[in-house]
């Protein structure tokens, strides 16, 4: 019975992901064209999600959109599971000191989710925004977190990477990334060398609990037009101090370490 319940929940969540992936109101026919589920199953899942206010359906246009219940759940998740509320004063202080873009991120399975951001004094156009999801293998925050994952977790994350080449600097296979992760562990911080976006560089450090568990990562990002990796390196002590403060707050408040019992 439990596996059947889990299977139904998993299917419903997959449909939610499909609706969200379109990034716009979507018709049943559009979803059916891309869905792995038969017409009757997809319709039933959409009805259930609509009844639960996870989706909204406009009977006049036939369009489905994400429901307002998700907004409340997202807010609650941000408040109780995200590092953002804990990190806010520390990100503010770091941003004031350095004047460059600051990112706070966490791993979402094999991807990076940006949970907070502080813009530079002279803002730069870039992909990242709070709430956006990005690739782990070609971002500074992603590599900073991956470098300190347990081997079994890292293997799972590596297996799910897309290895799409965004720029000439993108690492496009697991062997190259593994070598990079070893270098990150040796020096204690990661770089983005224009690997995700041309002209965008960053230095990133993980946020880790006292037991070494990866909680998230912080990066300081700039442009090759006005900075360099050598310049960003000078911010590493400040970033490390910020990461340590956030880790202590997180461990004491939202992420207490628990002992496993037999």
Characterise the protein shown here:
With 262 residues, the protein is an alpha+beta fold. The protein has two domains: 2-71, Arc Repressor Mutant, subunit A (Orthogonal Bundle), CATH 1.10.10.10; 81-253, Beta-Lactamase (2-Layer Sandwich). The protein is 47% helix and 20% strand. It has helices at residues 2-22, 28-34, 39-51, 68-80, 84-98, 140-146, 151-159, 174-187, 229-233, 236-253, and strands spanning 26-27, 55-58, 63-66, 101-108, 111-118, 133-135, 190-193, 200-208, 214-223. It has a six-stranded antiparallel beta sheet, sandwiched between helices. The chain has a three-stranded antiparallel beta sheet with strand order 1-3-2. 30% of the residues are buried.
Keywords:
disordered C terminus; Beta-Lactamase; globular; disordered N terminus; 9 strands; 20% strand; 47% helix; single chain; 2 domains; 262 residues; alpha+beta; 6-stranded antiparallel beta sheet; 3-stranded antiparallel beta sheet; Arc Repressor Mutant, subunit A
Briefly summarize what is shown:
By secondary structure, this protein is of the alpha+beta class.
Q: Regarding CATH, which class of the largest domain? A: Alpha Beta
Tally of discrete structural domains:
2
Task: Spell out the helices and strands N to C.
Answer: HEHHEEHHEEEHHHEEEHH
| Cα end-to-end separation | 26 Å
Q: In order across it, which strands form the biggest sheet?
A: 6-5-4-9-8-7
CATH topology of the largest domain: Beta-Lactamase
- SS content category: alpha+beta
Q: Helicity range of the residues?
A: 40-55%
Number of strands: 9
Number of helices: 10
Mean pLDDT: 88
Secondary-structure arrangement, i.e. CATH architecture of the largest domain = 2-Layer Sandwich
Query: Quick one: overall form?
Result: globular
Any idea what the radius of gyration is? 20 Å
Low-confidence runs = 1-5, 255-262
The CATH H-level superfamily of the largest domain is GAF domain
């Amino acid at each position: 019975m439990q596996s059947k319940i889990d299977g139904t929940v998993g299917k419903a969540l997959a449909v939610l992901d499909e609706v969200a992936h379109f990034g716009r109101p979507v018709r049943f026919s559009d979803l059916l064209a891309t869905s792995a589920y038969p017409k009757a199953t997809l319709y039933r899942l959409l009805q259930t999600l609509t009844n639960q206010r996870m989706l909204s359906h406009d009977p006049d246009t036939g369009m489905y959109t994400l429901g307002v219940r998700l907004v409340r759940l997202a807010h609650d998740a941000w408040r109780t599971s995200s590092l953002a509320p804990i990190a806010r004063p520390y990100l503010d202080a770091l941003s004031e000191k350095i004047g460059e873009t600051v990112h706070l991120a966490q791993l979402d399975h094999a991807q990076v989710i940006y949970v907070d951001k502080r813009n530079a004094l002279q803002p730069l156009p870039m992909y990242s925004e709070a709430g956006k999801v990005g690739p782990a293998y070609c971002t500074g925050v992603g590599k900073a977190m991956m470098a300190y994952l347990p081997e079994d977790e890292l293997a799972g994350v590596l297996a799910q990477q897309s290895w799409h080449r965004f720029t000439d600097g993108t690492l496009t296979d697991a062997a190259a990334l593994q070598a990079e992760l070893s270098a990150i562990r040796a020096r204690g911080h990661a770089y983005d060398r224009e690997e995700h976006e041309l002209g965008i560089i960053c230095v990133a450090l993980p946020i880790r609990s006292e037991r070494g568990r990866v909680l998230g990562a912080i990066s300081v990002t700039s442009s090759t037009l006005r900075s360099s990796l050598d310049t960003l390196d000078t911010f590493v002590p400040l970033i490390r101090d910020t990461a340590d403060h956030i880790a202590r707050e997180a461990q004491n408040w939202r992420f207490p370490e628990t002992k496993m019992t037999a």
